Amino acid sequence: MTIKTADIQFNADGTPVATDFDDVYFSSSDGAQETQYVFLQNNQLPSRWQHWSKPTFVIAETGFGTGLNLLVTLAAFKDYLAQNPASTFTLHFISTEKYPLNHADLVQALGAFVQFKDSANALIAQYPMPLNGCHRMAFLNNRVVVDLWLGDIHDSLPQWHTNENGLVDAWYLDGFAPSKNPQMWSAQLFEQMARLAAKDCTFATFTAAGFVKRGLRDAGFIVEKRKGHGRKREMLAGYIAPKFQAQINRQQARYYQRSAYAHVENMDATGANAADTNNRTQGAATEKPKVAIIGAGIAGATIAYAMAQKGYECDVYFKEAEPAQGASGNPQAGFYPQLNVDASNASQINAHSFVYAANQYRQLLSQGFDFAHQWCGVLQLGFKPALAQRYAKLTDNQLWPPDLVRYVEANEASQIANCEIPCGGLFMPLGGWIDPLQLVNALFNAAACLSKVTLHSHHCLSSLEQKAEHTETSQPQPWQLCFNQTADKISQIRVSTDIVIFATGAQSLDIQHLTEYPLRMVRGQVEAVPTQPALSELNTVLCHKGYLTPEYNGHHALGSTYVKDDLSTEYRQSEQDKNLATHYQSLAQCRWAQDVVGNAQGRAAVRCSSPDHLPLVGALADISKQKTELNDLYKALPLNYYPKGSDVENLYMLKGLGSRGLTTAPLMAELLASQISGHPLPMANNLLNTLNPNRFLIRQLIRREI
Hints:
Layout: E1 8-10, E2 16-18, E3 23-24, H1 31-40, E4 56-61, H2 68-83, E5 90-97, H3 103-110, H4 117-126, E6 133-139, E7 144-150, H5 153-156, E8 168-173, H6 187-196, E9 197-205, H7 210-219, E10 221-227, E11 234-240, H8 242-245, E12 291-294, H9 298-309, E13 314-317, E14 333-335, H10 345-366, E15 373-374, E16 378-381, H11 385-396, E17 406-408, H12 410-417, E18 425-428, E19 432-434, H13 436-450, E20 453-456, E21 459-466, E22 479-485, E23 491-497, E24 499-502, E25 520-530, E26 541-543, E27 547-548, E28 555-559, E29 563-564, H14 573-586, H15 591-594, E30 602-609, E31 616-621, H16 623-629, E32 647-655, H17 661-677, H18 685-691, H19 695-702
Helix pairs in contact: 1-2, 3-4, 6-7, 9-13, 9-17, 10-17
């Protein structure tokens, strides 16, 4: 959903002023010094970082504004890392903003802080479009992760995922003054701050208003008046009351879905179990858990990259000779989101996934990891009157930002495509086409530059089981994997690993632990039609019932068929005829389109999909235990009646990408890697619920189908 941007003016000092609130974003004289004093010094930063042992230190902020607080914090953390090169934890900065600055205003506002030029430029480069929800950015080589939640804070905070141990270690209670913006400074805000507060969580704020002080105390914080900055006489700071910590109800997610997205608990900054500290030699280095990824398509590659960014070493196993030989092996594929006229969970997931993927792919290219592509935009054609009306409505209601999608009439569509287009449609300027095989290899190469990533070809998983080896510690039991090696002759190899991630596509039917999930196999054939004079002029990806891409290596991709439960990958003349017929029908009024001919060249692959066409992301449910634990769901009993649903220990999945892998895989992989590593999750609770692997079991239990 589109967010209204801030209406601001710059005063004589060059300081931005919010017109709607009649208040400055920061002090004209010493904004950076005020942030340093109020928020860092009064939250005891960076001194608290010196002995930090958790995977992340989480700062949460109640008003992003120009990002000045972030820039000051980045500078402090950069200095800390320079002095403490052995430190391993990640700084996670979470902020909210109801009225984000537009890009031009942000550039002008941050121009005043030349001391933060590099960080400011990095922020400007990643600054998101005004799309409601969470936008993840990374700084300082992924040592600082920033989640910017756009939207009303009272809507956002309840959607932040936490576990029973809390999330936030330090609060920056900022925003416009309570007298200017009383709607934000509410009991609801203070209650959410307490819900999200971790043990020993602190807070600081520039205001000393009485109702803020009372509200924080009522929510469970110990509040102190302290000397204010500059001419301000007083400010407030404090910490969560220890006795109150145990009384907080953090059960915000649905009773049956909490566990699949719980952070890794009792984990230190290395990823090891903190309970086993006494079993290690003092001062000895501790390794992160071993990770095995099954599958080397777009899902496996994005997971390897996301895990490598968090410092994990990964072994990637696949049965083919090279990566991306399944559905990810097509030479050319369209890249665009599937949007609807409403803000359904599916639409929001697709929109945010697309934006995240577009940013990630462009960052890979800027870092020198090349893959064939063309950011030429995508035209989704309203080739029927009903479609045209629906597309026009999608943009008329301003649900999606114009930077993401806008409606164009036939004349503009023809200009964009550089070909005759007889109808209007949706234009998505960030889209285009990508060579998926090259992208997969680029992702693996990028991952290998961050951490040790080893690819194991000719490995076909035949079985896996857990065996108790750590009998004297609380460490989880490792997984024993057995592979058939198929390079020359079939032989078997066994490996041990701590964490297993399933990222397979069409191989899913043969894999243990996945048989109870309603995964569907769908065959799709894509044509490689030869270019010709009229067709070679096409400058953008066209989508109708199928799709047609611009020329690449003398061919255009035309597809795709959709055949359920067909595992054959042989090329079929009948499906070429079907692809061409769909194309001719959708573009019946285009003379050039009728001249497109096939030459029996193309590729067929089998995709793995789900009944609701959304991925399955998270921990695998222990189906047999959850059937018992949640057997009474149909009774709609109170939340606290149900136990925490059991999952299979250290067994995860990213599956069911269907035909949307290029769009959805990067954000889904980041979500999964964050879950495994104990980092904050980059998505709202309601969207997490939509992706949870056990959702189909839950629906069956509620409907009493099992």
